[in-house]
């Protein structure tokens, strides 16, 4: 049986402090990010790709690769792939998706579910992935002047709804738990007919809050 970290355990706080450390560096040095983006962006890209290799390499070499948990269908893993593509292409269309979907990584920090210890390869993968996922939108703001439009949240919720419906029907076929629709982290006894629409609604409300946060930050750093 896997041994996972628990809410507000020592290792949970270690993860949080690592995130805070990199966040402080990013925001304190925000005016220098654009100047050094020519080497910062490739560095972040290499680390992100290395994290993916560590993640799937661990699954492969430990014999724990399963269709139900190891595919790149968790929302955080999809966001990582989008982030890698963004770092390569600087595609502004991807930026809102990366930002809004990073909100689910915040939820992972607030309510860790099936997260390994920091000494475990998957624990290292988790913290690496989430530091990049959570801070990449703000790096993009400083390095490439990426801005959020008020209409962007509608595109994000549209594609999220498509994703949720897809994994909802896929999960029973592969014994999966993508988007945590099977082993629900909150209100586990809620019927799917209520839980699935509620998940999308809560996600939309989260997007609204994230929008306000980012637009507020835009005013601070662009005025």
Brief digest:
Keywords: Membrane, Transmembrane, Transmembrane helix. The chain is 70% helix and 0% strand. The protein has 223 residues and is an all-alpha fold.
Please, could you describe this protein's structure?
The protein is mainly α. It has one domain (10-222). Helix content is 70%, strand content 0%. It contains 9 helices and no strands. It has helices at residues 10-28, 30-33, 37-61, 75-89, 94-101, 103-110, 121-144, 152-174, 192-222. Helix 3 packs antiparallel against helix 7 (121-144).
Write the layout of secondary structure elements.
Blueprint: H1 10-28, H2 30-33, H3 37-61, H4 75-89, H5 94-101, H6 103-110, H7 121-144, H8 152-174, H9 192-222
Helix pairs in contact: 1-7, 3-4, 3-7, 4-5, 4-7, 5-7, 5-8, 8-9
Features:
single chain, 223 residues, mainly alpha, 9 helices, 0% strand
In angstroms, what is the radius of gyration? Answer: 18 Å
Mean pLDDT: 92
Give the fraction of residues assigned to helices: over 70%
Share of residues in strands: under 5%
């Amino acid at each position: 049986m896997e041994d996972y970290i628990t809410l507000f355990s020592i290792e949970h706080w270690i993860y949080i402090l690592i995130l805070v450390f990199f966040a402080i560096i990013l925001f304190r040095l925000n005016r220098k990010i654009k100047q050094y983006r020519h080497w910062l962006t490739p560095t972040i890209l290499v680390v992100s790709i290395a994290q993916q290799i560590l993640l799937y390499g661990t699954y492969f070499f430990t014999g724990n690769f399963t269709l139900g948990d190891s595919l790149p269908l968790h929302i955080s893993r999809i966001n990582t792939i989008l982030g890698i593509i963004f770092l390569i292409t600087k595609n502004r269309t991807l930026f809102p998706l990366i930002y809004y979907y990073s909100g689910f990584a915040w939820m992972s920090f607030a309510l860790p579910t099936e997260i390994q210890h920091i000494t475990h390869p998957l624990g290292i993968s988790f913290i690496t992935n989430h530091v990049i996922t959570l801070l990449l939108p703000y790096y993009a703001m400083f390095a490439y002047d990426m801005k959020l439009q008020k209409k962007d949240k509608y595109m994000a919720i549209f594609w999220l709804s498509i994703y949720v419906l897809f994994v909802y029907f896929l999960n029973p076929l592969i014994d999966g738990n993508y988007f945590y629709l099977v082993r629900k982290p909150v209100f586990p006894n809620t019927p799917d007919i209520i839980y699935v629409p509620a998940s999308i609604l809560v996600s939309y409300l989260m997007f609204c809050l994230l929008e306000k946060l980012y637009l507020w930050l835009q005013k601070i750093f662009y005025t």
